Amino acid sequence: MKKTALMLAVCSVFSVVLFANGNSEKNAVKSAADLKGKRIGVQAGTTGELYVQENYPSAKIASFKSVIDAAMDLKTGALDAVVLDELPAKEIVAKNSSLMILDTYLSEEEYAIAVKKGNKALLDSINKTIETMKKDGSYNKLIDAFMPADGKIKIPAPPSNPAQGKTVKLGTESAFPPFEYVEGNELVGFDITLSHYIAKTYQAKLETVDMAFDSLIPALASGAIDFIAAGMTVTEERKKNVDFSIPYYKTGLVIMVKK
After folding, report:
1. What percent of the chain has pLDDT over 90?
2. C-alpha 172 chain-centroid distance
3. Residue 17: its pLDDT value, please?
4. For residues 146-170, average pLDDT
5. Which of 55, 241, 245, 255 pairs as cysteine with 113 (C-beta 3.0–4.6 A)?
């Protein structure tokens, strides 16, 4: 009797394991086509969210305040995939060995700085900064610092800005490495250092305001901030509400999954 019960218990456990593995394999996302009907995590207010909404209407979309929160749910199995920008995905995967990026671009994008509609003086100054940095080599140094081939980021010292006088307010979202993230108690990243250069050209002190990504454009419209540097992709819809600088970085949307 005991032997029979033990055999039944072993078979039961074995069946559960087989079912779990089979179910996991069935839900596995191995290509863009596999996203249909799956549980997909995105960051609220991003082009990743919009892309999934438009291209995978049958998907169960979960919107998060940050891509890092979405990655945590992916690790626990609450999601089948996360759609996000390439570099933040690489940063997350580098720190989470159980995650990986599929070898495909869903779309290509360009980042730019956003200012309030009609703020030509600031926009011209920002464009001048980007153009000057690309000509004098400081832009490439910034790329090498925050996107090094060996993966070892070396945060450069920002340029000195005026200690007094006018202030220009940067709006950003601090969970989007390597463009903006918290290191210790300090907000750092490619966009943050770039913004220090922007403030210097504009002859102003830089004040940084950290907020949720989907709050940035409303904050710009209300005057709470002066410009946005947050890995923001240029889109026709956003152009209705903000003026964009010349693009400063090209990237693409990728799919992050659990190994």
Report:
1. 84
2. 11
3. 37
4. 88
5. 245
The DSSP code sequence of the chain is: -HHHHHHHHHHHHHHHHHHHHHHHHHH---SGGGGTTSEEEEETTSHHHHHHHHH-TTSEEEEESSHHHHHHHHHHTS-SEEEEEHHHHHHHHHH-TTEEE-S--SEEEEE--EEETT-HHHHHHHHHHHHHHHHHSHHHHHHHHHS-TTS---PPPPPP--SSS-EEEEEE-SEETTTEEEETTEEESHHHHHHHHHHHHTT-EEEEEE--GGGHHHHHHHTS-SEE-SSPBP-HHHHTTEEE-S--EEEEEEEEEE-
**Contact of 251 with 85, CB cutoff 8 Å:** yes
CA dihedral 227→228→233→236, nearest 10 degrees, is -40
Per-residue pLDDT of 42-84, as tens digits, reads 999 999 999 999 999 999 999 999 999 999 999 999 999 999 9
Q: What is the pTM of this model?
A: 0.82
Look up residue 150 and give its two tokens: 């060996």
* Residue length of the chain: 259
Rounded (5°) CA angle 244-205-209: 60
Where do the domains of the chain lie, and which CATH numbers do they carry?
27-108 (3.40.190.10), 113-232 (3.40.190)
